[in-house]
Specification:
Elements: E1 2-4, H1 23-29, E2 39-42, E3 86-97, E4 101-112, E5 124-133, E6 138-148, E7 153-168, E8 182-200, E9 203-218, E10 235-248, E11 258-269, E12 279-292, E13 296-309, E14 317-319, E15 333-335, E16 337-348, E17 353-365, E18 377-389, E19 394-403, E20 406-413
Antiparallel strand pairs: 1-2, 2-20, 3-4, 4-5, 5-6, 6-7, 7-8, 8-9, 9-10, 10-11, 11-12, 12-13, 13-16, 14-15, 16-17, 17-18, 18-19, 19-20
Length: about 425
């Protein structure tokens, strides 16, 4: 079993989905900054996946930690006491994969209140990540998600740059057939920004913008019958305006135990904005959470993706990213249409420990009426949890999963969804 990495554009958690698609490579390295990742796969390693620690419990006020008091000062009521404002989380994650070599991903995140007098807004997050391996893969980025004005507004941003050497498995691969992989090298820079306003009833609506300068090239000999990079994508700029609609009825985003989360995004890449290609990306997802007693949760998730018009190979719907589904590496299967569903049972144990079990099914196809049941992609697995932060219930995650094309071992910060 080999080790790879993983780390959401709609939710910035701790820090690392490396960069929303710096070419196909950075797409696999990350699809939305915050989240820490690492994944192990067999037999077909690739580069990315993801998750999120960006927003938190809106219905419960966070408890402030007890102030630190010096013995000399504790009897002096006139002297102000220092209080801890936020929580630091660090996640060093080793990587070992034939796809991107051996190295380390380091993610550092800070969870805090933007305005300590604001008891309504969830805590904000800021984070930085860096990745380096011995095959020349390098990536770094900075991003965050901020809540302010008593949860009336929220903004998300990401700035990232990197180069990733990886294997690309082509478009429309059919399950059960031998994969034809091509060694590629992708690099680029990306800026992503989003601003949402609460319009009532837990609904946020707002615009989003992204600008990416990307390059891609063959990194070695061309594989006979393998994917060939279109000349237009050797050097390209993609620019998009879009919108995001979110309804968040959960009781927390780090570890929700009840409620639901709905997200719908649309990105319109257009030549009038400076984009080299004209196309659209649409994604709709729904998460549900049901508590069972005080230590158990049943969670489920569904997502659909559609990439339309003159879409480049690095912006297709990719199966296995954003942990949809675990058991598959990002880049093994991609096409213009995708769906994925999964359910997960979570149980807390003593000593900060926890266990999960999950299963799901999905698929990719060129059109919505082209899905076939014999080409569906099922997956199942189990995992361990260790609570890094008791206050915000932020877990260190280790998941083992098996799919139709191999198996993966994923390591990251926060729940898979």
């Amino acid at each position: 079993m080999k080790i790879q990495n993983t780390t959401n554009s709609s939710r910035l958690i701790l820090m690392t989905s490396a960069a929303k698609r710096l070419g196909i490579a950075l797409a696999l390295l990350g699809c939305a900054f915050p989240n820490s990742w690492a994944q192990t796969t067999s037999p077909n390693p690739s580069i990315r996946q993801n998750q999120d620690l960006s927003k938190t419990d809106k219905s419960h006020k966070l408890e402030e930690p007890a102030p630190v008091v010096n013995e000399q000062d504790k009897d002096d009521p006139a002297k102000p006491q220092m209080k801890k404002r936020g929580t630091w989380i660090i996640a060093p994650i080793p990587i070992s994969s034939p796809a991107i070599g051996s190295g380390l991903v380091l993610a550092l995140g800070y969870v805090f209140k933007l305005d300590e007098s604001d008891d309504v807004s969830p805590p904000s997050t800021l984070g930085v990540m860096g990745a380096s391996t011995n095959n020349g893969t390098r990536a770094g980025g900075f991003g965050g998600r901020l809540y302010f004005s008593e949860n009336k507004y929220q903004t998300t941003f990401l700035i990232a740059k990197g180069q990733v050497n990886f294997d690309f498995y082509g478009i429309g691969r059919i399950p059960g057939r031998d994969a034809i992989k091509v060694p590629l090298s992708g690099s680029g820079t990306v800026f992503f920004g989003e601003f949402l306003r609460n319009v009532g009833k837990d609904i946020f609506v707002g615009p989003r913008f992204q600008h990416r300068k990307l390059s891609a090239r063959l990194d070695g000999l061309q594989t006979p019958g393998g994917f060939e990079i279109p000349s237009i994508d050797l050097q390209s700029t993609t620019v998009a305006l879009g919108f995001h609609v979110q309804r968040d009825k959960t009781n927390g985003s780090f570890y929700p135990t009840k409620g639901s989360l709905f997200n719908a995004t649309a990105d319109f890449f257009d030549e009038s904005l400076g984009s080299k290609r004209q196309y659209q990306n649409y994604k709709v997802s729904y998460n549900g959470y049901h508590g069972i007693g005080t230590t158990q949760v049943l969670a489920y998730r569904g997502i659909i993706c559609s990439a339309n018009q003159n879409v480049p190979f690095y912006d297709l719907c990719m199966f296995g990213v954003n942990n949809d589904l675990r058991g598959y590496t990002g880049g093994q299967f991609q096409n213009r249409r995708m769906f994925a569903t999964q359910a997960e049972y979570r149980r807390e144990l003593p000593k900060r420990l926890g266990v999960v079990a999950f299963a799901g099914i999905g698929g990719v196809a060129n059109t919505w009426n082209a899905f076939r049941s014999d080409e569906f992609l099922p997956a199942a697995g189990a995992g361990l949890r260790f609570k890094l932060d008791k206050k915000n219930h932020i877990n260190y995650r280790i998941d083992w999963a098996i799919g139709r094309a191999g198996r993966t071992l994923s390591i990251g910060i926060g729940e898979a969804f």
